[in-house]
């Protein structure tokens, strides 16, 4: 069984809690793209774990893997391992594997990221964690692999090859080039490599062999479909491919092995940073969604912009990912809003369309066409089954199902593991 999970919006849909819920049924949970610009929050009873790299299945018996399509900051990785171990969760080499071809985020990537964003007249909204520049080096074949990091001699050879180019790049945009070879930073990375060396793995081989043996694998994505570097709202996107096909390419698993593709989608929509968000609400409804939903980014702490459910964008996500079902999160946040609205189309240049325009500047000009539904006042946070939801909430869920064309498999009514149930 090979299942892929991706976010169907702009990220922050609640993938971490859904993965945590499902991981008990999977032998392996594998992260397939992105870096520590991602943020997953998992709440179990009174414990809250905020993760950026380690897949969300770490709390259960699953083996967790980081595939070669990711970019890895070893400092953050070690911090997460220590944080979990301090909480009583041991992260052994039997528990965690990191592919040897995973690209390493170096200090000069972080420096370049901050310098480049500062020079932009129109900000992208990067987290300034070096993610994009690590991916640039991956494509240019100038990256440092995890297998280099864990071998001091190989690391020093790679740095000697790369350093002149990186020093020139930093100098050209007004930075201090000494960061590339600063001895304290190099020594720190050598130390990090030694600490992480036991975790090196061949992720593609391990996943395929496990599937051959009848085991189950869950592939976990970061960010959301409309932040995809190719298909997202250019240029306000992330640096990797966030859609389901990316799981196959980045983990090294053929598409014929995929059994299920699950969409994670909020009952409304949010976005962090710049870029179009056609249904954004700046009045009372938007404030309600923001405050009740506690809409702040896990990674950056930035306030999220909030709006009504955007069906044209959801339809595009269904096409991009080939979803077979969905998990609907934060349904409880809509309590107290009346009416509840669903954007079912856009008005653009005098025409009504039901699918997003390809051009981002056109999407930014789209005016939502809404369908209104009756809201409900009942608190949903203690609901444990679909039939216990208020009728108006069930009508809303079933309308989303019909418009998306895929069934809702899971519903979440709060941050706790026990607050998510099957429909």
What do these coordinates show?
The chain is an alpha/beta fold and 423 residues long. The chain has three domains: 2-99 and 200-260, Adenylosuccinate Synthetase, subunit A, domain 1 (Adenylosuccinate Synthetase, Chain A, domain 1); 103-196, Adenylosuccinate Synthetase, subunit A, domain 2, CATH 1.10.300.10; 266-321 and 330-405, Adenylosuccinate Synthetase, Chain A, domain 3 (Alpha-Beta Complex), CATH 3.90.170.10. The protein has helices at 15-22, 74-86, 107-119, 131-139, 146-149, 152-172, 183-196, 203-212, 244-251, 284-292, 311-321, 360-365, 391-404; strands spanning 2-7, 28-31, 40-44, 47-51, 63-66, 71-72, 96-99, 103-104, 200-201, 217-220, 260-266, 269-271, 305-307, 309-310, 325-329, 340-348, 351-353, 367-373, 408-412, 420-422. The strands form five sheets. Strands 9-7-5-2-10-1-11-15-19-20 form a ten-stranded mixed β-sheet, sandwiched between helices. Strands 14, 16, 17 and 18 form a four-stranded mixed β-sheet that branches. A two-stranded antiparallel ribbon has the order 3-4. The radius of gyration is 22 Å and the shape is globular. The relative contact order is 0.15.
